[in-house]
Amino acid sequence: MNSYVQVNHLCKSFGQGDRKLQVLKNINFTIEEGEFVCLIGGSGCGKSTILRLISGLDEEYEGEIFVDGKTVCGTSRERGVIFQKHRLFPWLTVAENIGYSLQHTGKKEKYEIVQSYIDLVGLSGFERSYPKQLSGGMAQRANIARALVNNPKLLLLDEPFSALDAFTKIALQKEMYRIKEGKKSTMLMVTHDIEEAVYLADKIIMLSPKFPTGEKIIRVDLPRPRDRNSKEFVELKKYFLIIFSVIR
Ligand SMILES: Nc1ncnc2c1ncn2[C@@H]1O[C@H](COP(=O)(O)OP(=O)(O)OP(=O)(O)O)[C@@H](O)[C@H]1O
Ligand SMILES: [Mg+2]
């Protein structure tokens, strides 16, 4: 059976001639349906580039990228993207932002869908607030709801929690996993945070030109819910930190 996402021999360069910069060199990985995969690696190694290519925002590359058996061609509502900074429209309320892409849905149905996502991300009571009235964590919740409202089969997240304080971050990490389990969606998240990756991922892809094939893939088989203080968790985190210190 084919994997839900298949990346084969992916290469990507920016610029031309003397100014050509090869960012990705022979990257290979797969993501199974329902899997939570984290992508980690040093700054500038091409993590966001991979996300943009899988989302279809950038279509120039060498190699193969298949999602659900098909070559990625342009963006699609089946692939939601969440960036580090929320991209809410400042002139719309939380509810209007979340429902923005449901243009062709009837008024009552739209209200119900939007409300269910507001509840899901814990923003009840803030439906009529504007983005500037929200804290960073609340704005990112609204951003997540706005991406989920289209029921994407694949959610691509680019450091979605990196600008948040430690407590908000931990709360949102827990919620992200709960949402993934409930919606049965497949997630690929870029993060700088090794603890976040070990807490959330079924599989971690480490990117570095120092690996023979450009990437190293490690499964995380710790039982869930994961205890950040357990011996196994701490040991795995230490193991990743050691590899990370060598490859970056
Ligand atoms: N549109 C572009 N034009 C030219 N170079 C680019 C472009 N986008 C990215 N790059 C270069 O490609 C490399 C990888 O960028 P990318 O944003 O994918 O890195 P990253 O791993 O996400 O880094 P960070 O952890 O800092 O977010 C960088 O050297 C960057 O300068
Ligand atoms: Mg990036």
From TrEMBL:
Top-level division of the source organism's lineage: Bacteria
SMART domains in the record: AAA
UniProt keyword annotation of DNA repair present: no
One example GO MF annotation: ATP hydrolysis activity
Segments traversing the membrane: none
Keywords: ATP-binding, Nucleotide-binding, Transport
Entries under PROSITE patterns matching the protein: ABC_TRANSPORTER_1, ABC_TRANSPORTER_2
Domain ABC transporter: start-end pairs: 5-234
One Pfam family from the record: ABC_tran
Protein name according to UniProt: ABC transporter domain-containing protein
